[in-house]
Amino acid sequence: MVISKEISASSDGAQWQSIDWKSVEAHVLKLQMRIAKATREKKHSKVKSLQWLLTHSRSAKLLAVKRVSQNKGSKTSGIDGVIWNTDVRRMTAVNQLSRKAYSAKPLKRIYIPKKNGKLRPLGIPCMIDRAQQALHLLALEPVSETFADLNSYGFRPNRSTADAVSQCFKCLALKQSAKWVLEGDIKACFDKIGHQWLMDNIIVDKRMLEQWLKSGYVDKGLFYDTEEGTPQGGIISPTLMLMTLAGIEQQIKSTALKMGARANLIGYADDFVVTCSSKEVLVNDIKPLIADFLAERGLTLSEEKTKVTHIDDGFDFLGFNHRKYKGKLLIKPSKSNTLLFLRNLRELIKKHATIPVNDLIKLINPKLRGWANYYRHCVAKQVFGYVGHKLFQALWHWAVRRHPTKSKDWVVHKYFLNRKGQWQFHGWQKIMNMDCHFNLFQIAKVPIERHVKIRNAATPFDPQYQEYLVKRKSKRLARNSWKEPVPTAL
Asked: For the chain, give me the number of helices (H) and strands (E)?
């Protein structure tokens, strides 16, 4: 009996290793494209039939289990303590992934710190619930993409904050562009979405949707019901939120046109801005329209954070400051984000006062590279230089504090190299019997490149955009080919 189980487990592991993932993804995409086509043609019965076919297909189950067991949060368990960290467990999960008699378990409530020091609640589903959500997300995403606002960029395939910022530039850069901006803030968007609206309007298996919405959560050993909202931590939650907000862009444009004005919405998840040629239309017509639209869905605008701003005064959106200087629009890293990044770097350096220099460089470089990559499409050269200078000062103080009895010349020769007139923080380590050289990533040298925005209507589930998206991805990978420094032999 024991031998039989061992053989079965070994077989499951080998089976997972032998899966042709390209074939699996191609089969799923083919069904998703059929769902999107039926959605565009408003054949709702066909959409539901194809969704059922997809969620019951082995390919979709394999892909769902792969995504939840090999993503960033795969090592965090739900209330049952289970994780799928072996090929045997993954294959077993695929075989057990069934709608029949399915009942969602309560979420595990955890808290993560926000920028303002407060705590954000997250609901962590069990692995089986994540897999079920991922499975039905495969069937829901083609519908969501078909209905999505053209200028909505968050939690959508092939879209990014860079696309949203590029659209802001397009709407605000010209002399005749809109001068007024409504900065929108939806109060607790994920936590307040009305369950009844979701049940009435989301085209997905209703029994499964209700299971996730009403699963409740466990916090410090106590169970709590969920009467509203979608859990921040659920795989399907961002798409449910996007579908809740879909349609608002066209209503805003139509309302502005009726009032003789021009307006554009740029959204990223639950953050959005509306640009308009008339302050009066923004305040008297568009803002009330947005409030009514949200109220139908159980949501409200934050009166404290929602405000109307002139472009000459500038506004922050997605970590970027947008402002016109003498008629010229400049988009830069926001001051608050720059100062926060520097504070985090200083805390990291202070926390690791005694580690080897090469280990410190290994900790700092990914953060520098990630931050630079986020901002390298805007007017950031001066800010990159400022960050590099402040980091140099912090590392100099770190080096001096480590050797209080040594001279400054000694510290310079130990930790810094002069390259073409610039001092560079560096370290050594023996690797494979060679003295290897570690360099700090030079953020000031990161090239600034214009981002090419995605076409508004492009979606991976429409055949006419397949070739375009493939070419766009390859070009983006080529542009991102610059890497952080690697150890080099001395």
From this structure: 19, 15
